[in-house]
Amino acid sequence: MISLPSHLVRLLIAVMASLPLFVSLSVSSQTSAADTRINQRLLSEDINADITLPAEYLGYPLGEWHLRHDQINQYLQILATESERVSLDSAGYSQERRHQLTAVITSETNQKNLSDILAYRSNVKFGTMQNSRSNTQPLVVWLAYSIHGDEASGAHAAIALSHYLASANAPWVKDLLEDTVILITPTQNPDGFDRFSNWANNNKGQVVVTDNNHREHNQDWPGGRFNHYLADLNRDWLFLRHPASQGRVAFFHKWQPHYVGDFHEMWHQQSYFFQPGVPDRVNPLTSKANQQLSNELAAFHRQALDQVKQVYFSEQMFDDFFYGKGSTYPDINGAVGILFEQASSRGQAQASPNGVVTLANSIDNQFATSISSLQGAHNLREKLMKYQTDFFSSNAKRTRDGKQTGRLIKAHGGAAHISQLTDILNQHKISFKYLAKPIEDDDIIFSEQDSIFIPKSQPQHDLVEALFDKRTEFKDETFYDISTWNFESALGLTLIEGAKPSIKFLADKPVAKALTLSANTTKTVFPDEAVALIIDWQQAAAAPFLQQLLHQGVLVKYALKPFSLSAANSKNLPVEFVAGSLQIPLKQPVSEEQVRQIVSELAAQYQVNIVAASSSHTAAGMDLGSDDFIKVQPVTPLLVTGSDTNASETGQLWYYLDKTLGISVTMVNSERLTSIDLSAYSHIFMADGPYHVISDATSRQLGKYVSDGGTIVAQKRALVWLKKRNILKSEPKSKRELNNLFSTSGLKFGDKSKLDARQSIGGAIVSLTLDQTHPITFGLPNPLHVMKNREISFGPTSTPFIVAAEYDNELLVSGFLAKEYQRSFANTPAMIVEKKGKGEVVALTDNLLFRNIWLGTEKVYANALYFVPSAM
What letter would DSSP give residue 751? Predict the structure, then answer.
């Protein structure tokens, strides 16, 4: 087995031994993060002195100050200029347009052949590795750091590692580079990384303070963990809601690495973790061969950390279940991913039960396991390459009988949702087909506009299975993240398993469709005799389409009840519209010519189908001039932000309002609400959160806001706060009350962790039955599948008209939800709209925007905006 070079080990041990024992809450800056351990290491070998050291570039030792993303990019560019071993590749841009650069480090010979290597990598999924050239191809190792912006030690270690590999002349390094292409991405979340770096540097004094209560270790909301829209990017590998994730996944499939190292930080009280994780919590779709390689690689990490006397642990706490993370996405894509977690200093140095955690020591540990990753992967090169070959070969062999079987999929939200689904599938390199003509299967009509077919036989077979997995039973009921993420539920899809469509019904490209539909014919323009334009509210893009119409001053009405228009078609059937569907009268304050032009342009942009009505008389239901068509008022929402709120869920609301609907949304920290004239806002949104810092004066102000005609849209723990302040009448059950559902009779102390797991709802998909006459449910599929990840519910209510949705009697769709919860939640309210004075409170027990991938339920918030309070 290859170990760390002896002189590096001696240096690590010597410097660690020289570190003082911290017994006070502060230490001199002369002996803290500016410690030269990592810097000395970079000078300890036979290195190319012409390559600029990190300290030479920075003007100070690496780790004395927290790096910014631009400094990292500039240093990588210097290395690429100075070393023939280094080139640069791009993983795209962050939301704030920071460039995500990756150092590509390999031998000079490999550098000259990168185009050929990449061409070969592009065919890995299709079995071309089984030819004679595979033995001459390099191993590809991707080391990626700091996807959580405040887990900064990884990015600093990546800079040191990049210099070391670019300049070291040790024989083992030269051998490694001949056989391996090494990809080093220092920062995977540039926006959050810079937010944290500025915070840590702004709060650093001359004297390093290790007190946990020090401002340096306690970031202001939302902290550096999250990206621009406050998303956890290490939960976005599958969902791809954010540009940094999209660039990263594209980068993964471009290089198709054999090994991925995913470097993080954890709680300062911990030590150091590396996978394997908890054995019983590995996703069943991950092969035993993958886990065997994880165990073999772990031996290298153990030896590296033992040599420097850094304590560590494995097979506890963290798992390999959810495929939306950097260490697990590789596992379902033909690679081996390994998670590393270093105790965090969250600044320069922080006291912990294990002694003081310093940035310098954290950088060293991340460097050590980066080296052990390279040595382990190099030593296991043949096994890693064979594993990848076998992975894709086994997928290709699954259905070689030529039968075209797979999943036939229809989106309730129509073309816009199918477009979003196909965009995700394309990014994951999943093969699918469009429909060339309608298919009827199981009494469901799958049309060209709202349906696709995903064949079972394809290289990404395993990933497809993961996306649509609906298991409800598990060997271990503890989950580090969610227990399910089924795309059928998330995107509001109707799905036929094992469908066998004829090839003549399938197409490689979407069938061209007309922009608009009229009652009599299909045209790209609206007929002259049209009196109004009608938009079915079930279409996913109808809500952002509506918002843009309002923004441009177009008068729009919505239907309180279903109706239908006459139409000439092959079956002479009327065109039916659900409640909530929009009517755009062609006679209104804006000229008809302007209306036609605006609507035509927006319909093309948002993929919205429009029916032109030639008469105000309808085939069924109220006529177009009825009072049951209500004018949609412009909206002015306010989103409560700050330390009282769950940053991720607040960010998801911001993303939906800003990025999806295109609304100008005012964000105000909760402690500032007292100084705000709330009457200027039509709606106030409150994400999950304890809301401890809102004053009594603000509580009274919010109560008056609703009574005077405002609308509060609140979810999860915000409901508990609203009830305590007498703004909400209905009684939500908190986690403490729900814990009483679980019997503790006869339990032993050792059973506590299992009880905690059963009492936790990490993420399960449950089913709701809707009152489809209620405006808050207009346009939604019934039943409705939602992600439940918080222990909160309402008790049964006798108050009529306020319950818009309730949990089904048999509510569990997929994932883990304890039987106690299933029995308790069944047939209880999930959505309530309470009248209070002239206004309303929309109360939601779940986050219906979960990670902005729950496209099937997000329309609830649009309904709250445009239909409440006018319909109430």
Answer: G
